[in-house]
Amino acid sequence: MQKSNKKSSEVSKLLFTSWDIPPALKSPNVCCFVIGESVSFFGSWMTQIALVWMVYQITNSVMLVGIVGFTNQFMGLIITPLVGVYLDRWNLRYVLLTTQLVSILLSSTLTFLTINSHITVTWIIIIGIMQGTVKAFDLPARLVTHILHQEKLM
Question: CB pairs under 8 A, 24+ apart, for 63-72?
Fold first, then answer.
């Protein structure tokens, strides 16, 4: 009996030795950060897809779908180069918390307007512009945080 247990433990050791957890993922802070990042990106993409889909459902206009998608991305293209200067001076933790709270507020506003049947293409474009502005602050702050902490995790 003991030999079979010994064999099975050796087999399981061989099986799981290739599944070594990277040192960074052993840290609870990094695990929380990765989970939070995943949920946040998922929520951002859901909102972006919802905006475009709602425009198409309301108007059946492909041109307005393109305009909404453009306005969502365009603000990021304009503001992101300027944001880097400010991110060097601001507390990145507060920037990330603020951008996440504003994203939640924008998604909640979109939900409220949709449920109460007050949603229009104008509201969708305004929310898209604001969401693009928030992403212009959020994404560079995430990258800077990742680069700063990368040396500590290795």
Answer: 64/121, 67/125, 68/121, 68/124, 68/125, 68/128, 69/128, 71/125, 71/128, 71/129, 71/132, 72/48, 72/128, 72/129, 72/131, 72/132
The answer to whether the CB of 80 falls within 8 A of the CB of 136 is yes
Span 74-86, pLDDT tens digits: 888 888 888 888 8
Residue 60 lies in a domain: yes
Q: Is residue 19 part of a domain?
A: no
Give the chain's domain count.
Answer: 1
CB 131 within 8 A of CB 48: yes
For residue range 101-139, what is the model confidence (pLDDT) as tens digits? Answer: 999 999 899 999 999 999 999 999 999 999 989 988 888
